[in-house]
Each structure stands twice: as structure tokens, then as C-alpha cells.
Amino acid sequence: MRQTLFALAALLSHWRRHPANLAMLILGLAIATALWSGVQALNAQARKSYDSAAAVFTGGGAQNIVSARGGLFPQELFVRLRRAGVKVSPALEGAARVDAKNIRLIGVEPVTLPAASTLAPLRENREARNILTGEGRSFAAPQTLRELHIAEGARIATERGFALPPVYAIDSAPPGAVIVDIGIAQKALDQPERLSRLVVAPEQRLDSAKLTEIAGNSLRLVEPDEENDLSRLTDSFHLNLTAFGLLAFLVGFFIVNASFGLAFEQRLPMVRTLRALGVSMRALVGALFCELVVLTSLAGGLGVVGGYLIAAALLPDVAASLEGLYGAKLSGQLALDASWWLSGLAMAGAGALLAVASGLSKALRLPLLSAARPIAWREAHHRYLRRQGAFGALALLGAALAYSTVDGLAMGFAVIALALLSAALLLPVALAAMLQIGESLAERPLAHWFFADGRQEIAGLSLALTALLLALATNIGVGGMVEGFRETFSGWLDQRLIAEIYYEAATPADAREIEAWAKEQREVAAILPVWRAKTRISNWPVEIIGMAAHETYSAHFSLLEGGAEAWRALHEEDAVLVSEQLVRRLKIGVGAMLDIPATRDLWRAKVVGIFPDYGNPKGQLRLDHARLVAHFPDASGVHYSLRAAPGDVAPLMEKMQNCFGPKLARLVDNAAIKKISTDIFERTFTVTTALDTLTLVVAAVALFASLLTLSNLRLAHIAPVWAVGVTRRRLAGLELLRMLLFSVGVALIAIPLGLFMTWSLVAVVNVAAFGWRLPILVFPLQWAEVFVVALVTALFAATIPALRLARSAPADFLKVFANER
Amino acid sequence: MKGKTLAGLLALLSTPAMAQGYGGLGSDAPGFDMPKPGTPIVFPKDHGAHPRFRTEWWYLTANLHSADRTAYGMQWTLFRFGLEPPRESQEGWEDRNVWMAHAAVTSATENLVAETRSRGGVGTVGVEAQPFKAYIDDWSFEALDPGFDKARVVARGPGFSYSLELTRGGPFVLQGDAGFSQKADTGQASHYYSQPFFSVEGALSLHGQEVKVAGKAWMDREWSSQTMAPDQKGWDWFSLHLANGEALMLFRFRGARDYVSGNWISADGSTALLGADDISLTPLSQTAIGEHNLPTRWRVQVKSRGFDIEISPLNPRSWMGANFSYWEGPISFSGSQSGEGYLELTGY
């Protein structure tokens, strides 16, 4: 024990003498942990919000019953089930707008609400009485009340002009939701005698056969462990975040590996001395392990705190993206439990252990005597490079194999990971080859030395350069995807948003009134109903949208497949246009027959065209307006678009607003819609870009760390060159030049790698994650930018070590010859 | 009358706010009608609901025997609580009635109980006057003919179910003063009638085992807006089928001063009100269930009739451990007369 303590004290003294190395080590580990745990925090927060939304109805393992086609179902089915002895509680969920914010309105029935629901307090006698007497009561989470700027006891008015009962805070309400009595919800959402869900009392078990026997085919049983649509739809978003977190961790891990590796190397003489003094191998390993625990706790702790800060900073953007993309509400207040903090620390520990494992085993396997030679294990570098090259080629083969054999999102990431790994492994080999060529071409001795010494240096820098390579490639890959998306999306929106004005009436009756009015208006060139219904195909939520026969669509609405014939067929036959997502999910194509669950029966229609529907997590079908009305009589007939001359748009909208006021639930022009849509995606990519930039920063730090710690070691290589008359200034200049050369090499490899990554993201990951494929666009200007970034990063990292070299005292150089330093 | 459970709830709900719960039987009921003496009870209209009153109940208990003379008890009760006086044009979920029902089967060793609750207005619960039909979920108590001569009662719960046919053997009996039944010296009262002359045949199912049974049932109907005086804690209630075909209803409301009353029902349905001085109710022994001490054995005397019996329960642990709990179970008695009946104990 005493032996271990003394050994530990000796080992730790190294850090006192090399504070920069210690700082890098801690920084690397802290950054890696911070990025990883920050991303995990965002995911955990989202999952918690989904859970709290779901637990309202699935508490205690309750089964739920929903409409088999999605959407709402008649209350009569609830009565039928109750009268058949099935203990179910009704609920109606819907979206409402309050003060230009979206809220989720949840109507529950307090008398029959299961005791295991998170809203169980509402079923207590006193609260049930409060809800059902006088003005009644609404409930929302304290956070939601703050966001809506509503005080307890006040009444929330929806944009449709419905005043909800006075609202009170309840902690268990899901974020962004307002809970009301079922009767109030039906009125506020204008869905008389309609329900969205039945909660089966948990003490009862219902099977599908019994449900069908009682209620026919219109309802579907949802088991509590069946993932809800929300978490399924958002899965891919979170997977993307996780992948980025992992990448960042990986880059951070390179820093740790470099710092630890260096520390081990520098401490080899110390290890030899300790062993020679009689410290047992066990005591030494114990001491090294203790050191690791101390450093990991310190750096991991810092990292987890950093992760919390990163998550808090990115949360608003993530929340906005998830809400915009999926309508998922996230609580804006980060609330993380102990397991998150512990998992962050565990990740730091595991990373550190992995990073030191190779160094540790090398140090321990070294023969006692050879340990005295500082860079003994590097002598094997040549062999090492050859092995690494072989592994790199193997990884490349793996990537090709993965691409050709497996399918889906995991494959997409596997291909990217393997390609990155192979590039990382091959980078030192490629750089060494490049230097070898340089060396063979060099004529003057100094140039010869320049290249030869560079090859020596690669060994120490390869991990840092690899980190830079990964960061640069990711930058190009992700940047290309984001830019490509921005262009495609913007063009697509322009095609989609042909009509000048879009409005949503508060109720179908209001819609008829506005429609009749609009027909009379001279400014209105055309009025196009865009009625909607919902269904489920292959258990996936699908929107059904009616289209009038009008040149607005046939001339502008972009189709991936179909063309003019599709438009004729759409309005003359039982035909549908299908979104790209749905086509991919169902694995069908143009010409296929599709059975669509309509209101009363299955409607069989031919697929005549495929249209892009970027960003929509649900499937979409478009059909002729008259067919929509015929097959989906319960379609919500409140959405319309209007055509008008550009100059008439603003006055017409003002006129509509004045005439109809609250009868218009929403009234926007196409510019506003475009802005909303673009904003949603910009926010999504804000997160991606932020993580991307952080990765690059980490890589720069890694390079800096490696160079700084190497500079001391390299003195032995440089001193002889100085001794033969090359000035310190010149030597420093050569060091800088060599770094530039390395970074050029890295950038040259990073560009094709990045392009490959763009392709993988766009053609594989995106398709698997979201169901739509973007055209691949290339942005040479972006490459140039990355090139410059690489050079600047290298210069930034190399300047301080080079300056230090230029200012080294001649005595330091002389020491190299005096003894073993 | 058996429907006293409601007041029992009140007594059990300890805080004033809780007492306001569904029942609120001891508190003021502004806006609701109050029972008035002299209000005639009219059939079949009064078999139906009285939403102008705050609470009411449909209460059916039966003493049953299988072919091998094993004794069972059966309960089917439906309660209505008006949270607010009804207003014009309240539709669907605007209805302000909350309903609750209990069903139970009791044997010497088991007391199987189920409770269900429902909001009025949407069709899961309701009562129709003619032909009489009271239902909540899949439980029902309904007449099979317009004259209510035959009826069927159905319910199921964890471990039990029953379907029984009732045949009426006598007229409906008005309790109290022509159906106005006073509950306290301070004037609290209810409208109250009974049907003690049902004979029963049918089947119980206990843990999947079907048992054919036959016996006698007693139906109580009562509606009010304030049944108990504020100082009253609960009540003891007796409905007794005498072997000679007569029937006896007795109750005691326990307050600062006990309020005791009863009704002697002849085999032809004619009634004689019994005064407090005429009735003596003496607990003989207690059964402890959880923290409740319940007098489950009694000596009951009606002096003017020379009636002196000892009552013992079929199952002293007939605890209705639902959301609102009380003791209710089948009893038998012997002494000057013998027979069977039901006992209800609330507020203990």
C-alpha cells in the first residue's frame, strides 16, 4: 500500500512539471465528456417530455384504444364499450392556439380516469368537483403557465375565441399541454361527441378480438409498451444527435490518447527507476490506476458540467426543431436525474481507460533495461504503419461490404463510421508516403532532413491529425448536406407555395361562409379547398389531402414521377399521388394499387404519381377533392388556398380579417409560410452546425496539445541540425512549414472523405431516417473554405510551439549533447 | 330503505371539504329541492331519477340459498349525486350528475365487492321509469314488464357475477309518513319507498363456479338533498324478512341524540310506523376490521309487538372496501321470530 502511495506521488509529480500536458489531458477528456453528455442530456430531456406526455394515458401499464385509421372516432363507441363492461375512460386531444403559441389541449374525464394516470389528482373528489361545478377548472404544468404568461386562476382564451375554465398548476401535466374536462375539450376543439383515445383501466386486460367483437374494426388496441408515434417519429432525429455526440467524443478521445501516450512516454525513465528501486509491478499498476481515477473524476466532472451547459444552450433550438418538425413539446427546463450525471462520468472513465490501455500495456511490457530509451516503442513505427495500413484497407472493405449487404439507418451510420475509421487509419500511411516521395525528390540536405524528420514526427502527431481529418470531413459532409437541403428545400417550397393566400376557418360552417364570400370577391382569382383527413397505412399515420383540378397544381406542384398524365388520371380515375416517404415505406411505385382505409371501408386507388414531401414525418396522399369528400366524409373542411394578383394580396387579407375575425383560425400569405418552414429547418441545422463547429474546435485543441507536448521531445532531433549551423528562426520556420504541409495533406484527404459523407448522409442516412432523398449538390466554395480552415487550424496550433523553438536558449540545445537530458 | 350509504360516505369523509365530495349529505344544498311532507309518491314516475334532488339511490339486497342450503347475500346499488342543480338545456358532458354503483356477493367466508363510477349525460348510465330500467356500464336492474312484476338484475366484478330474476309478491311500500321519511329532529328527511316482497331465482358465479340460488330480495328507493343532520355520524340499518311473511325496517341515525325509527310491514303491504320509544337496538358484540370496530351482532326489540330477536351476520367481515367503505351484509335472526335480512353500518 505504502509502495503504491509513493509510486503514485512520484507519478503525479510528472504533471507538476508538465502542467501543459496535464491541462491538455483534462481539457480533452472534459470536452469529450461534455459533448457526449450534452447530447445525451438533450435526448434524455426529449424522452422525458415524451414520457410525461404518454404517461397521462399509459400510467400503470394501461392499454389505450385509438381509432384504427388515426384521427378521431365517435363517442358512441366509448358508450358501447362501457355498456359491454369494458372499463375505459375517454379522452380527446387536439391542438389549439393561444397567443400565437401552439398548445396541446387534453380533455380527460375525471370520474373514470384510472388511478394510475399521472393526472390521478384530478379524480379526487374535491378536484373532480372543482372541475365539474361552477366555472370548472383547467390545469397546466407550472412551466407551461410561465410560457403562456398566464397566472393561476386566470382563463386561457384560444384563438378561436373559446375561454377555457380558470387554469391551475399541476406538476404532472405534460409540457405545453392544458388539461380540461372532456366536455370542455370537445367544445374548445369543436369536436362534439368525438374522442381521440380511450384508456383501459389497468386492472383490466382487453384483447383485440374482444375489442373487435364489441366495436367492430374502427378501433385499435395500443399496448402500453408499443412506442407512441411521437417517439417513433422523432427517433431518427435523436439518432442523428447521438451520432454527432459520439463523433465528438471520438475526437476528444484522440486528445486524451495523445496526452496520455505522451505522458507515458515521458515517464518511461521514471517507471524504470521506480522498478529498479524495487516497486513491484502490482504497486505500479495500482498507482497508475489510482492516477487514472483521480484524473477521470476531475475531468469527467468538469465535462459533465460542461455538457449541462451545452445542453442548456442548445435546448431552445432542439425544442423548437422538434416542435416544428413533429409537433413534439419539450419542457424548456433542463431537469436531469442522477443516472445522467453518472453515465457521463462512466463514459469519461471508459474513454480514459481505453485511451491509456495501449500506453499502459506498452509501458508494462517493456524490458527493464530498454525503458531508459525515451522513444523506444516508436522504433517499431515502421512496422506499425504497415499494420495500420492493412487495418485501414480492411475497414474500407468493411464499409463497402456494409453498404452492399445491410439496409437502413444503422447501416448508413456504419458505412460512415467505417469509412471514417479507414481514413483515420490510412492517414498516417498516406502522409508518410507523401513525405517519402518528397524525400526522394529532395536534393539539398536540409530538404532531405525536412522530409525525413517529418516522417518521424507523424508518429507523434498522427492521432491529432486524424482528429483534424475527422472534423474537417464532418464539416464538409454535414455542410454539404445542410447547404444542399437549403437549396432544394427552398426551391421546392417555391413550387409548393404557388397560391398567394392560405387560410384555415375556425369551423366547417365558418369555412362555407368564407368560401361563399370569397367567390363574390373580384380580387380572388380562384378558391382552392385543401381539405384534410387522416388514416393509417401499414400502421403509419398518413395525411389525406384533397386537390381541386386547377392549373395551380398541374403546372407547378412538383412530381418526382408521374407528369401530365398523373394529373389527368388524378381527377378522372380512382387515383392518388403518394409522397416519397410513403412510397419508400410501402415499397411501391407508380402503377401500384393501394388499399386506403377510408371512413367506412377500404378504398382501392392507383398510384399515379410520386411527389417530394421534404420534412414531413408522416406519410401523405393527395387525391381529387370530390373523391376526398366521397370517401372521407369526416374530412376537416377548413383549409383553403386563394389565388390573387400579387398587388391584391395584402388588401384582400386585411378585408378577410375585418370581415371574419375569429372565424379565421389562421390567415397567412405564402411568404409567411415559407419563412415558418425555413425557420424550422434553420433551427434544426443550428444544432447540427453547433456540434460540428465544436468538433472542429476540439480537433484544433488536439493538434495544439500534441505539438506542444512534442516540442520538448523533438529538441533531441533538432539540436544536431542547429549544431551544424541552421538558425533557430529558420528551424522554427521549417516546423511551421511542415505543419502546413501536413494540414494540406489532411485537407486533401478530408475533401473526398467529406463528399463521401455527404453522399452517405443524403442518399443513405436521410432516406432511412426521414424517407426522402435530396439531390446531391456540390459546393466547391465550401471546400476552399475547409482548406483555409485546415491551414489556419494548423498554423494556430503550430505557432506557439514554433515561437517557443525560435526563442529557445542555445543552452537548451546544448543540453541535448551534455547528457540524456 | 337501505340507501343510507351516502350519508355513511359523508361520515367517513373526515374533512369538511371532503364531505362536500360527491354526497355532501349533511350540508346545505342551495338550488336543489328539499323533501316536503305530503308530496305524493307516484308510480311509475318515481321509479325514475329525480335530478332536482341532490342524491338518490336504487338499492337491492337479497338473501339467497343454494340447493344444499348454503347461504349467500347479494347487493346491487346505484347512487346518483347531483353536483349542481340542473339547468336548462344541459346536454352530453354538461350533465352534472356523477353516478356510482356497488355490487357484491357475500358468503360465510368471502365478501366479493366491485365498484364502478360514471358521468351522466352520454349514455353509459341512466334510469328509466317505465318500464323500469337502471343501468351503469354492463350492470343493470330492469323490469321485464311495464308493471314491474318481474325484473332481472345483472352485475359482475372480480371473482363474481350474477344474473337473478325477481318476482314481485306484494305492493310497493311507502316508508315514513306516506313516503316522507324523517331522519333527524332538525327536519332532515328523504322520500323513501321499498319493495320487500321480491322472490328471487337465478345463478351466482363465484370464481368461475356457477351456483343456482333462490331466496328473497328487498329493494329500497330514496331521494333527498340533505339526509343527515350536521351532528350525525352515521347510521345502523336493518331490513328483516320475518318467517311469517311480514317485514320490518329499522334505523338509528347516530348523533348528539340518536334518531330511531322503523316500520312494521304486514304480509299484505300495509304498514305501521314505529316510534323511537317502541324500538330497542342493543349491540351485542363487535368485529374489528382494520381500524373500524363494527357492532355486527345485535339484540333488537319492538316492545309493542312482543318482538325480541338476536341478530348474527352470515359473514362478520362484510366490509365494502371500495372507494367509499362501510359494512353491509346478510344476517339471520332468531328469538320471538326468526328470519333473514340485511344490516348496514356506516360511519364507524
What does the model show?
The complex is a heterodimer of chains A (821) and B (348). Chain A is of the alpha+beta class and 821 residues long. Helix content of chain A is 62%, strand content 14%. Chain A has 4 domains: 1-61 and 250-372, no CATH class; 63-223, no CATH class; 375-496 and 674-821, no CATH class; 497-673, no CATH class. A 9-stranded mixed beta sheet of chain A has the order 6-7-5-8-4-3-10-1-11, sandwiched between helices. A 6-stranded mixed beta sheet of chain A has the order 14-15-19-16-18-17. In chain A, a hairpin with a 5-residue loop joins β6 (155-157) and β7. With 348 residues, chain B is mainly β. Chain B has a single domain, classed as AttH-like domain (AttH-like fold). Chain B is built from 2 helices and 23 strands. Chain B has helices spanning 5-12, 16-19, and strands at 55-66, 71-82, 97-106, 111-119, 125-128, 133-136, 139-143, 150-157, 160-168, 173-174, 180-182, 189-206, 209-224, 234-242, 247-254, 259-265, 271-274, 279-289, 292-302, 307-313, 319-321, 325-335, 339-345. The model of chain B is unreliable at 1-24 (pLDDT under 50). Chain A binds chain B through residues 75-76, 78-79, 82-85, 87, 109, 111-112, 125-126, 128-129, 132-134, 181-184, 186, 192-193, 203, and chain B through 13, 17-18, 20-22, 83-84, 92-94, 96, 98, 116-119, 122-124, 135, 137-138, 156, 158.
What value does the Rg of chain A take, in angstroms?
A: 33 Å
Helix content of chain A: 55-70%
User: Radius of gyration of chain B, rounded?
Assistant: 19 Å
Query: How is the main sheet of chain A built?
Result: 9 strands, mixed
Cα(first) to Cα(last) distance of chain B is: 19 Å
The best one-word shape of chain B is: globular
Helix content estimate of chain B? under 10%
Biggest sheet, spatial arrangement of strands of chain A: 6-7-5-8-4-3-10-1-11
Number of folding domains of chain A? 4
Number of strands of chain A: 21
**How many distinct folded domains of chain B?**
1
The CATH topology label of chain B is AttH-like fold
**How many DSSP H or I helices of chain A?**
25
- Low-pLDDT runs of 5+ residues of chain A are 371-379
Q: Determine the structural class of chain A based on helices, strands and strand pairing.
A: alpha+beta
Using the alpha-carbon principal axes, give the shape of chain A.
Answer: elongated
Structural class of chain B: mainly beta
